[in-house]
């Protein structure tokens, strides 16, 4: 990197896209980085491109590829690793889970900002009793292995589900989990997620649930909406309905306090002639409107005033994927790193230097927050040390460069949780535009007009 502060600059811009923190995980946009192709650029080029040319600050991998993990070192980009389904029975054995963490996490962390491990993908939909029976024990063992390495607060464990886990989803208020999975698997799983402060992850795809009649509803286009007669709430897009159906199912078993993260969602830009709405314009509309919607703070009818962490599928068109044409055309970018369409994730300088293969400007980036009079965010004197440590973990986990409060950094001394929290909390507060509520941190922060900077440590 050319400048020591390039990581800070990159991620402050990303944080401006997330309009507000209201509860749960921060509304941020990530991308699924699949590699089922024989024409993709090297991982080092991909990592550099995402950091320097896009506002994407989170990446989900479908394995623990060491070359990709090495490539993302020192970028600050938050990385989610996926453990293949086939390893789940092995992970049900604690020594194996410990060896897996030692081999796949410890060599790369903290240089690579690994924030989450996903155990399998859509395991409950696999209808494999061995995988399903070992899913929660495997997650528990990975968490135990991370705890043994003192990483359990930094790296969370979860697993993504298809909407096939729901036996009912329409209207959204009737959402419930499939019998046999609800008590035997999903309740223990949700208990684990609650105890470890990890999110419930789902893969909602309006593309697979829409028809010619509901295309506008699926693409966030103007439409007449769908009324849930049980709640008298109106739905104007299919994604909200799918999220609320999941929320209703979680509510039915008593877990509304576990956050929901969108692990995968997307729209193909090309497909078979018989498929509805499969073109670059529709894909740009879905992903562009998705970006604006999940970061807007509007939330859903059953979960108002919320932002969502969401991962678009996928980074690249992958030419070796089996199935219909659409399966190979979910990418935001071509293998040569030119955009398939423009949705507002390229930085302004990148837009002028990277030609768009199919320019379709249907979504624009959110305007930067205007600079206000200078204030700073610091911990309240009454704030507990454990709460302040959580604030540090949260802000640094977003991908912000926390190196100044690490050993040898200009803000490392005094080496106290309170001093380090002051730096991290203020960095977040400044990036979000100095809104008072962005210094709240669950009532542990306060705004001050006194500059807390000292020596070479600049706030």
UniProtKB/TrEMBL annotation:
Does RNA-binding show up as a keyword for this record? no
EC number(s) reported in the record: 3.2.1.39
* Catalyzed reaction equations: Hydrolysis of (1->3)-beta-D-glucosidic linkages in (1->3)-beta-D-glucans
What is the annotated signal peptide range for this record?
1-27
Gene3D superfamilies per the UniProt record, alphabetical: 1.20.58.1040, Glycosidases
Q: Which residues form the X8 domain?
A: 375-459
Q: Return the broad EC class.
A: hydrolase
What is an example of a GO molecular function annotated in this UniProt entry? glucan endo-1,3-beta-D-glucosidase activity
Q: Set out the biological process GO terms recorded for this chain's protein.
A: carbohydrate metabolic process; defense response
**Key words, A-Z:** Disulfide bond, Glycosidase, Hydrolase, Plant defense, Signal
PANTHER family in alphabetical order: GLUCAN ENDO-1,3-BETA-GLUCOSIDASE BG1-RELATED-RELATED
Return the similarity comment.
Belongs to the glycosyl hydrolase 17 family.
What is the name attached to this protein's record?
A: glucan endo-1,3-beta-D-glucosidase
Q: Which organism is it from?
A: Papaver somniferum
């Amino acid at each position: 990197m050319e400048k020591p502060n390039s990581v800070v600059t990159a991620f402050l811009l990303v944080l401006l896209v997330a309009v507000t923190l209201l509860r749960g995980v921060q509304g941020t946009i990530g991308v699924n980085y699949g590699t089922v192709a024989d024409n993709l650029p090297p991982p080092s080029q991909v990592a550099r491109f995402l950091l320097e040319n896009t506002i994407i600050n989170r990446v989900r991998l479908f394995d623990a590829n060491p070359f990709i993990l090495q490539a993302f070192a020192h970028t600050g980009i938050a990385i989610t690793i996926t453990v293949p389904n086939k390893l789940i029975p092995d992970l049900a054995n604690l020594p194996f889970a410990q060896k897996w963490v030692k081999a796949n996490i410890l060599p790369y962390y903290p240089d690579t900002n690994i924030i989450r491990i996903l155990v399998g993908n859509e395991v409950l939909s696999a209808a494999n009793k061995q995988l399903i029976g070992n899913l929660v024990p495997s997650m528990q063992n990975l968490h135990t292995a991370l705890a043994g390495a003192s990483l359990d607060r930094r790296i969370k464990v979860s697993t993504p589900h298809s909407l096939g886990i729901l036996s009912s989803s329409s209207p959204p208020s009737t959402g419930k989990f499939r019998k046999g999975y609800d008590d035997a698997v999903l309740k223990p799983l949700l208990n684990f997620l609650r105890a470890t402060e990890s999110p419930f992850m789902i893969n909602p795809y309006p593309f697979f649930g829409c028809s010619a009649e509901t295309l506008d509803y699926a693409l966030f286009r103007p439409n007449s909406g769908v009324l849930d007669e049980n709640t008298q709430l109106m739905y104007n897009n299919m994604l909200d309905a799918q999220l609320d159906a999941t929320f209703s199912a979680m509510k039915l078993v008593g877990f509304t306090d576990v956050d929901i993260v969108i692990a995968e969602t997307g729209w193909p830009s090309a497909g078979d002639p018989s498929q509805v709405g499969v073109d670059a314009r529709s894909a740009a509309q879905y992903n562009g409107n998705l970006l604006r919607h999940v970061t807007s703070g509007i939330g859903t009818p059953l979960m108002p005033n919320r932002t969502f962490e969401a991962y678009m599928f996928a980074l690249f068109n992958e030419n070796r994927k089996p199935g219909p044409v659409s399966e190979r055309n979910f990418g935001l970018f071509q293998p040569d790193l030119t955009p398939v369409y423009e949705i507002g994730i390229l930085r302004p300088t990148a837009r002028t230097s990277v030609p768009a293969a199919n320019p379709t400007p249907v979504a624009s980036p959110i305007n930067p927050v205007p600079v206000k009079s200078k204030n700073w965010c610091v911990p309240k004197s009454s704030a507990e040390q454990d709460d302040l440590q959580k604030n540090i973990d949260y802000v640094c986990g977003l991908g912000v460069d926390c190196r100044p409060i690490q050993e040898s950094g200009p803000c490392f001394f005094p080496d106290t949780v309170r001093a380090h929290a002051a730096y991290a909390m203020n960095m977040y507060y400044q990036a979000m535009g100095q809104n008072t509520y962005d210094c709240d941190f669950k009532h542990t922060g306060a705004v001050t007009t006194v500059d807390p900077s000292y020596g070479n440590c600049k706030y």
